[in-house]
Amino acid sequence: MTGEAQAPPQPEPEPEPFLPPPVSPSLPGGVAAPGAEDFGAGDQAEERKRAEGPTLRAALEAILLVVDEPVAEVTLAQVLERPTHEVAAALRGLAAEYTASGRGFDLREVAGGWRFYTRADCATLVERFVRDGQQSRLTQAALETLAVVAYRQPVSRARVAAVRGVNSDGVMRTLVARGLVEEAGTDPESQAVLYRTSSYFLERLGLRDLSELPELAPFLPDDVENLEETTK
């Protein structure tokens, strides 16, 4: 019997060596996390972010939460070692964000700096909590004196007394003690001490500068010209 030559049997393929799965450097127990092969890109960026510290907005919020008076943009820029224009833009962005989200506080630029304030429509509740029903207001005499200083500054005590028609020395001392009024040199002719409103005055009234004071004309009497002559 003749038959075809049979091919020699082929050797069985050797099994591939077993390779353990890659181990994630961030998970214990040798269990690989999804995307572990990409470690060094996202994770390293996160590590750099933590090393660099908080964002500019977060840093500004942290500082402004502990200040007791408005802080200038230049001062904040120096502390944070960032350009002043970046700090200014971040501050305005935060202020707009707080207003848009209807927060109970806002960020205002007053007296040459920035500070957190409670929002105006929450004032009644805040006053009730802080004062517990007790009122601490300036007297009518103090308000009149403060108005004269605000609109006539720098002004001497004698000038204030002439405008008000009554001695104002005691009231002026009270305003100085409360930080609303401060000395501003002396008059070159009479050597009388001159007074002006302070930055605290602007802060309490929520003004950036004196140009934001309301116009005085609507509140003046009709015979204001005669009044001016009598007070000179």
The rounded Rg comes to 36 Å
> What are the segments in which pLDDT stays under 50 over at least 5 consecutive residues?
26-39, 227-232
Main sheet attributes: strand count, strand direction, barrel closure: 3 strands, antiparallel
β-strand percent reads 5-15%
Strand order of the largest sheet: 3-5-4
Helix and strand element order: HHHHEEHHEHHEEHH
What average pLDDT do the residues reach? Answer: 79
Oligomer: single chain
Overview of the molecule:
- By secondary structure, the chain is of the alpha+beta class.
- 43% of the residues lie in helices and 11% in strands.
- The protein has helices spanning 42-52, 56-64, 73-80, 84-100, 123-131, 140-152, 157-164, 169-177, 199-205, 224-231, and strands at residues 105-110, 113-118, 155-156, 181-186, 193-197.
- A three-stranded antiparallel sheet has the order 3-5-4.
- The longest helix has 17 residues, at 84-100.
